[in-house]
Amino acid sequence: MHFHTPSEHRINDEYYPLEMHLLFKSGNRFAAISVLFQLVSGSPPNNEFMHNLFLSVRNITRPGTSTITGTLDFRGLSNAIKTGPLYTYNGSLTTPPCTENVKWLVLGGTRPLHVDTYNKVKSVMKFNARYSQNAPGKINLLEKA
């Protein structure tokens, strides 16, 4: 599991503040689940998973630093994946070596993330997203510009 800020996937051309990738490998085959997060303010959402995950994120002060999370309960996320909607496509990993032929499942709805939690995460991660890529063999619009 890892995170990107801002999101690497878009829905209806909209980027989101945070994206979580859950990666799975079987032999030489990969699958990835992408979960997009939308910020909320006011009363923190009932999102115990994210709260426990980022409880001690400020202990991560430099690359390679680790910390211990609270208990992670994946049931809410599992239910969101089961009930969809899901977008699927064959793509690549978004970090080196950018392995191709990865089966992607992108959760169509967003999960709530309190703005205070996001700010803690952002203070550690900064910008770490890969821009959307064209299909192999297509002209890259950023190169052409």
Automatic annotation (TrEMBL):
Catalysed reaction equations from the record: hydrogencarbonate + H(+) = CO2 + H2O
InterPro entries, A to Z: Alpha_CA_prokaryot-like (IPR041891), CA_dom (IPR001148), CA_dom_sf (IPR036398), Carbonic_anhydrase_a-class (IPR023561), Carbonic_anhydrase_a-class_CS (IPR018338)
MF (Gene Ontology): carbonate dehydratase activity; zinc ion binding
EC number from the UniProt entry: 4.2.1.1
Zinc among keywords: yes
Entry annotated with the keyword 4Fe-4S: no
Cofactor field: Zn(2+)
Annotated SMART domains: Carb_anhydrase (SM01057)
SUPFAM superfamilies found in the cross-reference section: Carbonic anhydrase
Keywords: Lyase, Metal-binding, Zinc
Domain Alpha-carbonic anhydrase residues, every copy: 1-145
Positions of transmembrane segments: none
Family: Belongs to the alpha-carbonic anhydrase family.
Protein's job: Reversible hydration of carbon dioxide.
Name of the protein in its database record: Carbonic anhydrase
Organism listed in the record: Exidia glandulosa HHB12029
High-level lineage: Eukaryota, Fungi, Dikarya, Basidiomycota, Agaricomycotina
